[in-house]
Every structure is written in structure tokens, then in C-alpha cells.
Amino acid sequence: MLGSFDAVLLARLQFAFTVSFHFLFPAFTIGLASYLAVLNGLWLYTKKQHYLDLFRYWIKIFALAFAMGVVSGIVMSYQFGTNWSVFADRAGPVIGAPMAYEVLSAFFLEAGFLGIMLFGRDRVGSTLHMVACLAVAFGTFFSAFWILSVNSWMQTPAGFSIDPETNQFMPEDFWQIVFNPSFPYRLAHTVTAAYLTTAFIVGGVGAWHLLRYKRRGDKPSQATKTMFSMAMWMATIVAPVQIFLGDAHGLNTMEHQPQKVMAMEGHFESHPEGWAPLYLFGIPNEETQTLDYAVGIPGLSSLILGHSFDAPIMGLDSIPDDEQPPVAIVFWSFRIMVALGFAMLGVGMWSLWARYRKRLYEAPWLHRAAVLMTPSGLVAVLAGWVTTEVGRQPYTVYGLLRTSDSAAPLEAAAVGATLVAFIVIYTAVFGAGTYYILRLMGHPPHTAEARYKDVVDGPTRTAGITPATEELMRRHTKEEE
């Protein structure tokens, strides 16, 4: 049955599934690592217990999400050598070095200091422990730096030449490769999205517990209130910044990948005299090259993209059919991302109004909205990723190497079988991990939140509880008594 499918399409679906699954975890842990560093710094500066409680609460969740992110990301590197071996051979001389730097500098930085961050507070002292927290936070950002540099080079290739004999992309200027034309915009937009993703997850968890406290008639803990307050401050400040960065990124994309923006905007027809409408909704019809049932605002697209109502906007009718990306997917994924971005801005402004009225913790409808928006960052980053990657089609290296020419000569049945295996294994393994994370989020942060050391005083053993650890636990219990 799988043999009847196209092998390239199955390879694309396989990579899309694994990268989408993986991307959820870094999108959360990049912001969470920085949040933990801030909490630890506030605890050291103020010695207020609720900051330490929040650090201990979220560090357990961070450890699980970080581990799942690492494991889910390993698979993708193997796919370069299996499903996409032609791409790896052609582009390897250029992208190999940045990807190696990601492992050697960024990932090793995270992994090297993670153990100190998790277990070292009482062993290495507060100063070195704080350094470890900052190192892990910087490592997550640095990892994103290199990965996004590689992806941006594939979108806007620079600093290379093509070997006429092997057709390989050969590096000529390393810094042009790293800082290619779209990289600064993509880095700022993606990292800011990660911070917003974390803010709304933290804020949603805080709002959930505020609602539960109110339902029980209890007074919320200081840690719960601080968690919600810090998240809403982040949403209030960063959401408008993210919208501005998204606009700048869109203008950069218009310059270097115009057909992607045409698909995002649903512009099948050119508007050489300006007054191009901003389509809010519609049904892209790629057969007739029209946007059916379109609802738009006249002239607004020209104003946004060209900063003038008279700015000419070219459409997909100026692009050959075989150069056009899949319009419907790009059109709708872009609208999901933008709609969620403005919804985040709305929640941030709502929380600012509630804070001004001194009702931030007594605003149940705001709390319900925050709970509803908990996964919004994850959905938005996936929608943005789909917009970026599908909008680049039909190319792997934009304008130079087509996706159909990048795939390995594999049979569809082999690719399809591994795709099914990935779906089953990922759903089972990472579904269980996600369920456990939700269980941890389900209880509020307590005063004097428990540490791992408070449960087992000693290294974790894969064999479980051993006689030695049982003796240590009994000794620890007697000391407490």
C-alpha cells in the first residue's frame, strides 16, 4: 500500500512530523531556561522564599522538556543521511560547520552545566550555581542561533560558490554564510516567539491555579501570584515587540522570497498601480489562480508591504506555476500565526488594565482567557514554521536546489514504513512524557517546594531503589525527626 505513494512526499512528511514534534520542546525550553535564571537571580538578590519555590517547581518541568527535546532532535540528523542524502552531499560543505558548532559549543554548554543547575546548589555554592543557570540559558539561545543560521542560509543562501564538477555548494565567506540576509530577522522573531511561548504556558498554569484557589475559597500562594504576574508582564512587553519583529521579517522576506509573501497574502493577481487589498479571509483556488470568497481591506497590503497605498504589489501571476509554493497551506498557517499573535497582545493589554485596577489576581475572566491561551505559543510557532518551510517550496536551497532533487533514491515503502514507526513511537514515548509534565503542572507550587535531594540523597540509578539508597533514605528520615 505504501508503495503507491510518492517517496519524496513521504520523506517530506516524515521530516515535517519529526521537526514539528521536536520544535515544540525547544520553543518551550529556550524561554524557560531564561525564566529559571531570572528566578534564581531574584532568589539570591532578595532571599524571598517564593522565588526559590518557583525555581524548584519549574526546574523539574524544564528537565523533562529538555530531555525530550534532545531525544526527539537526534532523529532529524539521521534523516539528512538517509532520506535527504543528495541534499547532505550538495550542501554539506556549507551547513556542516554551523551544525557541528551547534553541537560542540551550544549543546555541550547546555549539557555540561545542566547537572550543576539541577543538583548543584548545595554542592558548588550559590555563585557557581547561578553561573550554571546562566550558561544553560545562554546555551539554549546559542543552539537556536546556529540552527536558525543553517535554516536561514537555506532560505537566503550567501557566501558560497558551486563546484562545477561536483555541483556542491562550497563555502567562500563563513560569516556571510552565518549572517545571511534573513538570519537576523529570523533569529529575533523565533527567539522572541519562544519567550512568548514560555510566558503563556507559565501564565496559563498560574491562572489555572488562581481559578482553583478561588473555587475552593482559599487564598492563593505568593508563588502562584508571582508566576502569573511575571508571565503577564512578559506578554504585555514582548507581544507588541514580536508583532514589530514579524513585520520586519515579512519585509525582508518580501525582498528575498517574494512568492512566499504572495502566497501568505493570497495575492494571485498583481497590483502594479498599488492599492493591493489585505485579504483577511478567503479560499485559495490554485487551479483557477484565484482567491474565492475573499474578504479584504482595500489598499492595506500596499501600505504594509510598500508603506504607501500606491506601492505596486506583484502577484503569483508573475511567477511560473512550477515556482509557486502550495498557496492554501501558507495562506492559512500565516493567518493562524498572526491571529494568535494579536490574541497574545490582547491578553497582555487586558492584564495591564487589570493590574492598573489592582485586580490582576481577582479577574476570573482574564484567568480563563490565560488558561485558554496556554498552548497558543506552541501553535503559533508551528504555524510560523509551516509558513516558512512550505513557503520556500519547491526548493530546499531557495532558487538553487529543488526538493525533488534533494531526496535520496529510496523506495516509497521504506520511507513510509519508518514514518509509521515514528508516529507510533513518538506518540507513545513523548505522549507519556508530556502527560507527566501536565501532572507536574497540575499541582501548585508549595512553600518550601521539594527538591530532588529531599527524596533521594544520592545519584539516580537506572536499577531503581537499591539497598544503599534505602539506607540513605532511612538515615535522612531519622535526621529530620
TrEMBL record:
Keywords: Cell membrane, Electron transport, Heme, Iron, Membrane, Metal-binding, Transmembrane, Transmembrane helix, Transport. InterPro entries: Cyt-d_ubiquinol_oxidase_su_1. Its main location: membrane. It is a multi-pass membrane protein. The chain crosses the membrane at residues 20-45, 57-80, 100-120, 127-148, 192-211, 223-245, 329-353, 365-386, 412-438. It is found in: Cell inner membrane; Cell membrane. Belongs to the cytochrome ubiquinol oxidase subunit 1 family. This is Cytochrome ubiquinol oxidase subunit I.
